[in-house]
Design a protein that fits this description.
Layout: H1 9-12, E1 21-23, E2 33-39, E3 49-50, E4 55-61, E5 63-68, E6 71-76, E7 80-83, E8 89-93, E9 99-105, E10 113-114
Antiparallel strand pairs: 1-2, 2-9, 3-10, 4-7, 4-9, 5-6, 5-8
């Protein structure tokens, strides 16, 4: 049986002052990968893409407009959006202010097909 793993912030965070970076679980025997996303730019967010697994978005701060398949969803801090496997999706910061999300990928490694 493998022991526990403690992953320090400097191992996954791109900058020490914001929640921005990623953790790929397969390296640690975990069946989930996590992306921490932060943007202050209104309209900022990832372009349209899809994964062969579901992605779950936890909106931690701010408001976002999600496109999941042919649906649009406005979500705010405290809400959760789930994009099913193989369904194209994206999101953008609606503002005002910072958008922070924690994005759970139901996979031990990231696999993304960019569509735009």
């Amino acid at each position: 049986m493998a022991g526990p793993h403690l992953i320090n912030r400097d191992q996954w965070a791109e900058r020490p002052d914001v929640w921005q970076g990623e953790f790929e679980g397969g390296h640690y025997g975990a069946g989930v990968s996590v992306m921490f996303y932060t943007t202050d730019r209104i309209g900022g967010g990832p372009k349209l893409h899809r994964h062969p697994y579901p992605e779950t978005f936890i909106v931690r701060t701010g408001r976002a407009l999600f496109t999941v398949g042919d649906q649009t969803i406005e979500a705010e801090a405290g809400q959760i959006v789930v994009a099913p496997a193989n369904v194209p999706h994206k999101f953008a910061n609606l503002g005002p202010g910072r958008l922070e999300t924690t994005d759970l990928h139901a996979s031990d490694a990231f696999s993304t097909e960019w569509l735009e």
